[in-house]
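Contributing new records

If you add data, match the layout below exactly. Sequence lines come first and carry their own label; structure lines follow with theirs. Keep one chain per record. Anything else will be rejected by the validation script.
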Amino acid sequence: MSNDPRHRLEELMEQSDPQFRTVMSCVFGIETHETRTYLALLEHPGSTIAELASVLDRDRSTVNRSLSTLVERGLAQRDRRLLDGGGYVYQYTAVPLPEAKEALHEALDTWTASVHEVIDDFS
């Protein structure tokens, strides 16, 4: 996963019972539509931008930006598939949910440790 996920953990602290999508968005520093794209990609591995745009009912440019962010954050992979008639197309696959959950736990553990350090160092 990315070393700089741009956490928005303060948003989580304001909610007493956040949904998984909210946790994922805040911890990985991604937008709600990017989390939605990740979850759709879990259900449709190996999808192209056009295929995901159809599934999500979003325009291709929005899906492309979401996928770029997910790849940057380490939540998706991009592979190039050669076409029979020449050329290629990119296919995207989400990292497995257990890996994403582990990364969420690690990010929260790191954040918690840093908060404990701040508390301990306060004089």
